[in-house]
Amino acid sequence: MDSQPIIRDLVLSNIIPPSKGDTCVQLVESEKRPFGHTIVNTQNDSVSDPQDLVNLARQIETCDAFIRANVSNRLQVIVNQVNFLRQEAQRVLAKAKRDDELNHSACNLVRRPGQTYYYYERQSGQKYLSIMHPQDWLLGTKNSSCPHRFLGAYKLEYDNSWTRQATDFDDELDDPLDELKQKSYDMQQNRKMIEFLIK
Predict the structure, then answer these.
(1) Is the CB of residue 147 less than 8 Å from the CB of residue 137?
(2) Running DSSP on this structure, what letter comes out for residue 34?
(3) Backbone angles phi, psi at 155, to 5 degrees
(4) CB-CB contact of 156 with 77 (8 Å)
(5) What is the pTM of this model?
(6) d(Cα 76, Cα 91) in Å, to the nearest integer?
(7) What is the gyration radius of the CA atoms in the chain, in angstroms?
(8) Cα angle at 44 between 43 and 46, to 5 degrees?
């Protein structure tokens, strides 16, 4: 006599509760009169191996593990996207603050889009924009050094934003927005793409 239907019925009727940590296998309810036909022996209404229930439980555990892994991976992707968006928002705010500072800095000439301006700071703390490159200061002064601290070169864009420009005097300057590194990386990528297309 097959004991499998008895175990199945005991599990289904919650007489044998599944222990915590173990997988509960739910089987399809069996009918004593399927489609109105009487089954002579309900104990032999299915041909099954005693290991079927164990194999089914293993399959359910595997499915549970895959579901947990898929959910975890999808949530990790969302976390990474949220972190990227947070960093991008901080970068946009920092650039807006920097652009506002440049737009309100002292300047004795009319600023024109497309022109590169050089940002300096006097000993008094006043920051100003000039069209004089730091190299120009070396040519016309006796002490052959820039009289004011050089803060960077910036190009005024047509939307009144500013873009950092690389110079030979950037070695000791900070680059909080990583604009110079990004430009260098972009130039390397463009060079690689051109080399690839030429081949």
Answers:
(1) yes
(2) G
(3) -100, 130
(4) no
(5) 0.55
(6) 22
(7) 37
(8) 115
